[in-house]
Design brief:
- The protein is an alpha/beta fold and 442 residues long.
- It has three domains: 101 residues; 245 residues, Alpha-Beta Complex (Spore Coat Polysaccharide Biosynthesis Protein SpsA, Chain A), CATH 3.90.550; 89 residues, 2,3-Dihydroxybiphenyl 1,2-Dioxygenase, domain 1 (Roll), CATH 3.10.180.20.
- Helix content is 49%, strand content 15%.
- It has 13 helices and 16 strands.
- The strands form four sheets. An eight-stranded mixed β-sheet has the order 3-2-1-4-8-6-9-7, sandwiched between helices. It has a four-stranded mixed β-sheet with strand order 11-12-16-15.
- It is found in: Golgi apparatus membrane.
Length: 442
């Protein structure tokens, strides 16, 4: 009994020992697994920490780069402003030096350009042909609107001129549907360029040309003579080198000048005193039509030649070739070297011109009827034809082939409602408005 009990006890001890050993083995295995997992977790954490440190280092480096770039930008901005101020100072000194050397300068000449490099080259070559001998009297500028690289490169290739560039990226809002944005940009450019020449460079007069024009041999002498006229007679708002009815068949005498109530444009000279007035109310678009409004004239008029001193070859442009074939291409560009210095232009003064012009109109033979052009060709001298209103004027103008267009109640080229042109040689035709003779005192 005792031996059996002892054996049973030993057996239980063995079982308990085996179970204990089994438990220990399982505990060891479990601890090993946890240790491996913990090691993996620790290694992962270390890797994360390492990656975090690397990211922090990279971010710090990038922040350092950003700070360095910001400092470099500030420095470059400062250098740019200094260079800009230096250029403006040098430009001003250059212009002052030019004006100091020639106190007798007549006017600055500016060519308004945009994106037609080939046209600009043709214009510059025409101008420089006659400007070079009188360059001190007529400093030459090219003002580009926008950043067309070919135009800038072309302008900068000429050492005889000063280049100006107008870059305006602000949005354009048209006032009426269907309007072309280009006309708004052109108006902005004109104001900027004229402000620059009159107020920055302090010129007393500016001649405005476009990048599609050729000039006549006596272009500069013509403007020098009429500049003196402008100084004496403040009723002259501007001087133009253009005649809207200057086609070959309607002109004859290169020595004749007229006063006009209609602004011709296309190569014109303006004084600073007039610009002081116009600059304050310059329009957002269609500046040339705005200048033709009688309310802006305040009773003043324009000087124009019979034979044009500029030729417009720009079929392609903002106006999309309007009038080019019919009216612009056949224009007669003067080819006579007129000695304007010896010419007496006093007849163009306001106190003399009305009587001077009235005598010419009065001496013309009056004709009437539906076939006015035919009758005019059969008269051996000057004729005058009365029109009743705008539609009647347009009917008669079509018979001869001259401009029919009116602006603000004034036919192109008109003075006191009278439009004059040559017809088949030296004879003049005067189209006379319903109140013209009364206004002329006839």
């Amino acid at each position: 009994m005792g031996t059996k009990f002892l054996w049973d006890f030993r057996f239980l001890l063995l079982v308990a020992a085996g179970f204990f050993i089994y438990i220990q083995i399982r505990l060891f295995a479990t601890q090993s697994q946890y240790a491996e997992r913990l090691a993996t977790v620790v290694e992962s954490e270390n890797q994360c920490n390492s990656q975090t440190r690397r990211l922090i280092d990279q971010i710090s480096m990038q922040q350092g780069h950003i700070v360095a770039l910001e400092e470099e930008k500030k420095q470059r901005d400062q250098e740019y402003m200094q260079m800009k101020a230096l250029v403006q100072d040098l430009e001003g000194k250059g212009i002052r030096s030019l004006t100091d050397k020639s106190q007798a300068h007549v006017a600055a000449v500016v060519i308004m350009a945009c994106n037609r490099a080939d046209y600009l080259e043709r214009t510059l070559n025409s101008i420089l042909k006659y400007q070079s001998p009188v360059a001190k009297k007529y400093p030459l500028f090219v003002s580009q609107d926008g950043s067309d690289p070919n135009v800038k490169k072309k302008a900068m290739s000429y050492k005889q001129l000063t280049f100006l560039q107008h870059v305006d990226s602000s949005p354009v809002h048209t006032e009426r549907p269907g309007e072309l944005i280009a006309y708004y940009k052109i108006a902005r450019h004109y104001k900027w360029a004229l402000d620059k020449l009159f107020y920055t460079h302090n010129f007393s007069r500016v001649i405005i040309l476009e990048d599609d024009m050729e000039i006549a041999p006596d272009f500069f002498d013509y403007f020098e003579a009429t500049a003196a006229l402008m100084e004496k007679d403040k009723s002259i708002m501007a001087v133009s080198s253009w005649n809207d009815n200057g086609q070959k068949q309607f002109v004859h005498d290169p020595y004749v000048l007229y006063r006009s109530d209609f602004f011709p444009g296309l190569g014109w000279m303006l004084s600073r005193s007039t610009w002081d007035e116009l600059s304050q109310k310059w329009p957002k678009a269609y500046w040339d039509d705005w200048l033709r409004l009688q309310e802006n004239h305040k009773g003043r008029q324009f000087i124009r030649p019979e034979v044009c001193r500029t030729y417009n070859f720009g079929e392609l442009g903002s106006s999309l070739g309007q009038f080019f074939r019919q009216y612009l291409e056949p224009i007669k560009l003067n080819d006579v070297q007129v000695d304007w210095k010896s010419m007496d232009l006093s007849y163009l003064m306001e106190d003399k011109y009305k009587d001077h012009f009235a005598q010419i109109v009065k001496s013309a033979k009056p004709i009437s009827g539906v076939d006015a052009a035919l009758k005019a060709s059969n008269v051996g001298g000057d004729v005058r034809i009365k029109y009743k209103d705008q539609s009647d004027f347009e009917r008669i103008a079509r018979q001869f082939g001259i401009f029919e267009e009116w602006k603000d109640g004034v036919p192109r080229t008109a003075y006191k409602g009278v439009v004059v042109f040559r017809y088949r040689g030296p004879n003049s035709v005067f189209l006379v408005g319903p109140n013209s003779l009364k206004e002329l005192g006839i």
